[in-house]
Amino acid sequence: MTLAPQMDAAPEVRIVSAELSTAPRIAHALLLAAALSGTAVTLALFITEPDLPLRTRAAFAVLSLIGMGWSAYALWVLTQRRVLYARQQVVAGWIAVAFTSVFTLGALAIGIGSGIPVGFAAAAIGLAMVGAALVLLGRARRRLAALTAKRQALETQLAGRAR
Questions:
Q1: pTM for the full predicted model
Q2: Which one is predicted more confidently, 144 or 85?
Q3: What percent of the residues of the chain are helix, what percent strand, and what percent coil, each to the nearest 5?
Q4: Residue 156 burial (C-beta neighbours within 10 Å; 0-12, 13-18, 19+)
């Protein structure tokens, strides 16, 4: 049995086949490697440089927490023994919204607190990132809802045939 999508197959089969492909697994493995690498660097700087300014140490601590969050997400996806459908995209969307919001608020605080114009520019970029994360989250939630509705319809159809 092949897991590659078939052109003449029902849409449900193509959706499941696409979810079983190795490309998302490779992408999540790369995400895990990048998140762990970034976390290791920021944690190393946080631990080994105690004389850094408080703002810099706080930034390294927050970046380390963000890296740990993405690492935990990638590990969760990679350790699942079943197809995750769109659920992992919803989880990733919420993580993205949370972390881009933290970035935006931090940049805005730097802009307001120290009057550095770059802080305001970074906050504006952060707002764009929050907007993009919200769009992706909305799309993932709609996809999950559509797949859930399709599953319920198929279960109802199968229950009707079983009678």
A1: 0.74
A2: 144
A3: 85, 0, 15
A4: exposed
Helix axes 54-79, 87-114, angle to 10 degrees: 180
Contact 70, 98 (CB under 8 A): no
Check residue 3 and give its pLDDT.
45
Q: Which residues, at least 6 apart from 77, have a Cβ–Cβ distance to it below 8 Å?
A: 24, 28, 84, 88
The first and second tokens of residue 93, run together, are 């969307």
Nearest-angstrom CA–CA distance, 127 and 105: 9
Q: H or E segment at 83?
A: none
In the chain, count H helices and then E strands. Answer: 5, 0
- Residue 4 exposure: Cα atoms within 13 Å on the Cβ side: 3
